[in-house]
Design a protein that fits this description.
Length: 726
């Protein structure tokens, strides 16, 4: 474009432009000749980058003064077909049900063209290039050229034949003109989804199985079916139903989730004696209903024959637990009842034998052949084996089948009480004051029987001996309690055996004469027995009490004198120990030395004597008076003191001193003042003899103290100390 001012003839004018594409980014896309006003494009334009520009043109004189008002310049970039259509996805995935009618929508593909959509450059059209596979028709789908919607165009989609189609779609601009337009392609994958158009069918029309009676959760037969629908989908999963042949519900059919087989399972035990075989009619269907227009196949039903095998069943007691009632105390051998069992194996000729399984008191016997129960002992309702008046025993009934079977039955015997227990007086002991007052004894009775063979009780005193009724009296309180009290004004303290006759209310009534020990004692003002009175009531007189006290005092005095004597003796021993010379006190000055013989002198020794002797023959065969200096002298063993079993602490010092003196004077105790025999360690030592070391007796060392060390060091004292010789 060229701009021009009407005033350019009068003055010199300079032109310029401002705005986006001039002095604003993108910079210098446009330029202008400042003298002629011609505008130029400096580089190629891209409409897809920027479709229009808005600039302002300015006109000024040579001094820069505005000559004209700025004018707006609108520049539009004209589109060219320089962009191909681009699909949003290179691969599109869609699905359609098998058996769909023509015109069924499948999916939509979309391609975009960057060119101007208002012109043919940006108008995209679609078409299907290829379809794979071309079955059952090469044109199973069509596409809307403008919207890109893919729909079915032919019938016959069958997943069991073709599960997937691959369709190549082409998008072309220039309104689909293949000569001038630009094109691009994409892939549409169409999956044929399954519908339940194939009913399940049994692989055979009849099945058979076998089951032992009385067994549950046993798989009797496996039913196999075939279904061409997609495996492990609701259209394929089988559901089995028993239509007829099992009115009692003994069987059910469960589906194996992996194989889709039907497992006929026993859920209710069958009885061979009731049903020897079952004829079942079963039907199979899918979880999902069949597609519209699809009918069930006649092969979706089948028959199942199940045979029941007989097994040896255990006898059973029809009445279990069986309860009978009878009075206690029936004699031994009484027939109580017949407790018989029934063998359910009606088609087996078997015998039933009876035996006891549990009879805690061993009161009953049972006939091994007919189950008749008789008593083996007298039944006692008051026994510890009775719980709530009921005795319970368990019996075993076993047949002789192969293998044998057995059943148990429980017999409960309710024992009716009879009056067979006399009442017992309570309490057995009591105490009362020697003078009559409000202090009385309440008595009652205990009866092992139950009502009506217990109370009310009758309490009375016997007429013999006469002193009982003379000294005592009974006052009735109620049917179960009475009071025993003194009849006379004073009764000497002591323990009295008072007989009382107690009679129950049974039919016939039973009575018992019970003895209550009554302690009569002096009482204080509160009616309680005093301490002295209690002793006196126990039967001890004043003289006996005084004698007991004197004995106690004498015993305490003897114990006190013994303690004083022991303390005095301990003090004397302690004083004696303090007088012992500390140097002679072996308890505090036990010294230990290496005993190596009686000393060494400058003389030659026969080293063969240091060798271990092989035998003791040379010792036993020596002439009298000749012995080796390293041998134990032969003679009587000295007598050492015997240590007491339980020594007193003060005797330990004496014992040690006596033992020390005996050891010092024992010639058989080592060392023997001679060479000791050690293990021979070999010859040829490179070291010289120890005897070559000169022992000097000169010097300032004083060895006289060796004389104070006792007989053991006498030899050393003689050699070095120069002491007196014995």
């Amino acid at each position: 474009i060229q701009i021009r001012s009407d005033k350019d003839k009068e003055i010199h004018i300079r032109y310029s432009i401002t705005g986006v594409g001039a002095d604003q980014p993108p910079m210098e896309v446009f330029s202008i000749d400042p003298v002629s006003g011609r505008m130029y494009v400096t580089r190629p334009m891209d409409r897809e980058e920027r479709a229009s520009y808005h600039l302002r043109a300015h006109a000024v004189d040579m001094n820069g003064n505005k000559v004209e008002n700025p004018i707006d310049l609108y520049i539009y970039v004209i589109d060219m077909n320089d962009n191909r259509p681009e699909f949003i996805n290179q691969v599109y995935n869609g699905s359609v049900d098998e058996g769909s009618k023509p015109g069924t929508y499948v999916m939509t593909v979309t391609a975009n063209d960057a060119d101007d959509s208002t012109t043919a450059n940006g108008m995209v059209r679609y078409r299907i290039v290829t379809q794979t596979p071309q079955s059952p028709s090469q044109n199973m789908f069509t596409i809307n050229s403008e919207t890109g919607d893919i729909v079915t165009v032919a019938a016959g989609l069958d997943r069991e034949k073709v599960q997937q189609y691959v369709v190549i779609v082409q998008a072309t601009d220039m309104e689909g003109n293949l000569n001038y337009g630009l094109s691009n392609t994409a892939t549409a994958i169409i999956t044929v989804t399954d519908v339940n158009d194939n009913p399940p069918e049994f692989t055979t029309s009849t099945y058979s199985g076998e089951v032992p009676e009385n067994r549950v959760e046993v798989v009797v037969a496996n039913l196999t079916v075939m279904d061409r629908d997609q495996p492990h989908s609701p259209n394929w999963n089988a559901i089995y139903r028993i239509i007829s042949g099992d009115p009692s519900g003994h069987f059910t059919i469960r589906t194996d989730p992996v194989t889709n087989e039907g497992m006929v399972t026993v859920v209710k035990a069958v009885d061979y004696e009731m049903n020897r075989a079952f004829m079942l009619t079963v039907m199979v269907s899918n979880q999902a209903p069949l597609a519209s227009g699809i009918q069930m196949s006649f092969q979706s039903t089948a028959g199942v024959t199940i045979s029941v095998t007989d097994v040896n069943e255990a006898p059973y007691f029809p009445t279990n637990h069986k309860l009978i009632r009878l009075e206690e105390g029936v004699p031994t051998g009484t027939v109580l009842t017949t407790f018989s069992a029934v063998d359910p194996d009606r088609f087996m000729q078997q015998a039933v034998r009876y035996s006891k399984l549990s009879d805690p008191a061993n009161w009953l016997n049972i006939n091994a052949t007919n189950g008749q129960i008789t008593t083996a002992a007298v039944l006692d309702r008051e026994s510890d084996y009775i719980k709530n008046n009921v005795y319970e025993a368990t019996f075993l009934a076993a047949d002789n089948g192969i293998p044998p079977a057995s059943g148990t039955g429980t017999l409960q015997i309710y024992l009716i009480d009879i009056n067979d227990n006399a009442p017992e007086l309570l309490p057995k002991e009591a105490q009362i004051c020697e003078k009559p007052n409000l202090n009385v004894i309440n008595i009652t009775a205990a009866d092992a029987d139950i009502d009506p063979n217990i109370g009310p009780f009758v309490f009375e005193l016997p007429s013999v001996p006469s002193a009982v009724r003379k000294n005592w009296t009974i006052t009735r309180l109620n049917g179960d309690y009475a009071q025993l009290s003194l009849r006379i004004t004073y009764l000497e303290a002591g323990v009295y055996d008072v007989p009382i006759i107690v009679t129950d209310s049974g039919n016939p009534p039973l009575y018992n004469t019970s003895i209550i020990k009554v302690k009569v004692c002096p009482c204080d003002e509160n009616g309680d027995c005093t301490t002295i009175g209690a002793v006196a009531a126990a039967g001890l007189g004043t003289g006996a009490i005084i004698a007991i006290l004197i004995c106690i005092i004498i015993l305490l005095t003897m114990v006190l004198l013994f303690v004083v004597w022991m303390k005095r003796r301990e003090k004397e021993r302690h004083t004696k120990q303090l007088l012992i010379d500390p140097e002679d006190d072996v308890r505090d000055n036990i010294l230990k030395y290496d005993e190596e013989g009686g000393g060494e002198e400058d003389q030659d020794y026969d080293l063969s004597q240091l060798q271990q002797p092989e035998t003791m023959d040379h010792v036993l065969n020596k002439t009298p008076g000749v012995r080796r200096v390293d041998e134990r002298p032969i003679g009587a063993d000295p007598q050492y003191p015997i240590r007491p079993v339980i020594p007193h602490p003060g005797d330990i010092g004496d014992f040690i001193n006596e033992g020390l003196r005996a050891a010092d004077n024992d010639p058989t105790a080592p060392p023997y003042d001679s060479l000791l025999v050690f293990d021979y360690e070999g010859s040829g030592s490179t070291a010289g003899s120890v005897s070559s070391l000169n022992s000097s007796s000169s010097g300032d060392q004083d060895y006289d103290y060796l004389n104070d060390w006792g007989p053991r060091f006498k030899k050393l004292a003689d050699m070095y100390g120069g002491g007196e010789e014995d």
